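Onboarding guide, step 5: your first structure request.
Type a short instruction followed by the sequence, for example:

Predict the 3D structure of this protein.
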Amino acid sequence: MIDRAAVRNTANYLRQVRPIDPEEITEYIEGTPHPAVVRETLREEAFDLRLREREDGSFVPVDDDPVSPPGWEPDAFPEAYAFALEDLLVAEFGANWHVGDSGDELRETIRRLKADYLYGNDVEYDRMAALGYAIYHLPGYYAAIGYVLDDLAENGLIDRTLRVLDVGAGVGGPALGLHDYLPEDAVVEYHAVEPSAAADVLDRLLEETGRNFRSTVHRTTAESLFGLEGPSGRSERSDPLDEPFDLLLFGNVLSELEDPVAVLETATDALAADGSLLALAPADRETAIGLREAERAVATPESGVEVYSPGIRLWPGASPSDRGWSFDVRDDLAVPPFQRRLDEAAAREATDEPGEFHNVDVQFAYSILRTDGERRVDVRASDDRCARMADSEEHVTDRVNLLAVKLSHDLSDGENAVYRVGDGSQSVDHYLVCTRETVLNDGLRGADYGAVVFVENGLVLWNGDEGAYNVVVDDETVVDVVAP
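The system replies with structure tokens like these:
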């Protein structure tokens, strides 16, 4: 057995002098272990030592600077991952996986998955379901995670050594997006939790990641991992939780958990003091609202958990109770070859439109939670400057000032622009409706999803058809972007 302490001590000394060569270290270790054993030991210790392995096999210190936003705007699903997925499909069904019985079964599987999600049915991920899920959902989820990580990176909250727990990792969309988002000199200790056959797909795709993205797949449930499956609902937590995590990912899994709130509440205990819990969900109504309900149940004034983004609470001590259907939209990806092949081989009636098996929309709901009080923007509302959305009933037909978070892109059909907004106090849906754009209010249109805007002199109206408040933005209204 190699003397790990000696390897660590030698590496700590040499890191100040030159790149660490495993062959050189062998000379300092009792018994002169083989360089390959030393190299593997360094890999296992690299995270704690803040070392990264270079292509030449030597190790150098990780930069202390946090990760900067990389300008994440993917226009296509990377070829390496697309080839890896097709390797799985070819191995399972042969070169013509997209035609014949296998193609028909994959298409029927995707149709069934879409229907199950739409109606909230339970989904069992056998081998076929996992492959169908990967074909249809992998590209969009790959793209979405990077846009969410931008919220953290813009404030320097992603370290170059990152311990990650990906709960319900599925076939790996968020994992691959995280890998490509981070710079090459980052070192990641990645733990995936996935009990289903999707783990087999995940294992293959993780083979395409770099040498400093060190992954372990735990084939267990989230409830078991967090100790929620005992007779009394509690049992011993699993070994991966012995050390805290810098990032907890819940990618498109909360809607499939029996008690998502209990899992999230327990998961926050596994966060490092400056760590983030990132939950991602599809943009459709039920899953997006379910995400927001779970967020609100966990992030209470008493819990010490706070919403970092996007729906920050602008009024101290307030909590929203509106529907919470809020999601971001980004540019579509190019249709990946595996989706195109499956779609082109589909048998259709003459009136059917092609594209049933294309899924390149990048639309997602998300929430980032933290326990250290950090928020994406440190902005607070005050009674002397603006009204609370909780009090909108008192202001119908009045003009008021509001501080608001922009929680949608334009929802209109092309006439008056409509944007969902919130301030953290609202119990009913609120929308900004721009009936006349001027140079004094055009900042609203250009503001990003999650931006904080100050609305001066907006007209509050009740929309009985929608059961919501419309705040009219017209030529008497000024909109300033307080935080982009």
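Each response can be followed by summary notes, for example: The first helix runs from residue 4 to 14.
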